[in-house]
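Intended use. Records like the one below are meant for learning the mapping from a protein sequence to its folded structure. Do not use them to infer anything beyond what is encoded.
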Amino acid sequence: MELQAESTTIIAPKSEGTKKKSATRPRESFLQFIARATRELQHVKFALASFVINNLRRRYRRSILGFAWSLLNPLLTMVVLTTVFSLLFHRNAQNYAVFVFTGLLPWQFLSDSIINGGISIVQNEHFLKKVYIPKTFFPLVAVGTEGVNFALSLSSMLILGLFIGLHPSPTLLLVPLAVAVLTVFNLAMAIALSILTIYFRDLTHIIKIVLSAAFYLVPIIYPLDQIPAQFRSYFFLNPIYYFINLFRVTINDGRLPTAPEWLIPVGVASLAMAASLYMMYKTERDLIYRL
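Structure written out for the chain above:
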């Protein structure tokens, strides 16, 4: 995700006097850092929207189908997985297709946010070296871009699902809440990995390998009841399972999530966000010298 140099200038460069003042300023507390970061992001909210829109335009530039690929890409993947694994697990193809897309789309949102968010600061270091920009800006742009793509894909697949066996339920109204929880977790992971990638550039390649393996360790293309009972407890230790399950319950099962099914992903997302912001708080002054 590269950003063109002619994009909107975000915050003007600091003067020498301002730099000297910031160098002697006493270190702010963690809560003060969060408050300042929130204010700074509010000041650049229009630039944030502009960068997200430009990223989406570049992604589908010179493509004949354009934004239709946001539907076709997961649709074609779903067709392949459904054809193979519905026979393997002896499942009805239509019901299995709905089962697959309720796991596949959230997983793609998560993995794309982590991969693109993890390299977001490194790829845009030329911006950070020229003007003052909140360090969380570029991870937020990456997750925002993938979030819009996910929303388009999910909306299209829900409409398609009505024709292939999805039974509409009032629990579909809870899907935006599930999306919000997953977005917070994705942003937290993007911020944390964008910081770690600055110090360890090979982490980008490691993340892709780990995510490729993790795809088969999360019940996305197979139901959990296909796993022997003695091994199911290991899947419950994987926090990603609870985010995927939230979409499965509200869309595929058509039932209200239980309190633990809500509280666990909300708690994991909140803790991950707190941890990632604390990492940014501790490393913010050092990051620009590491780029």
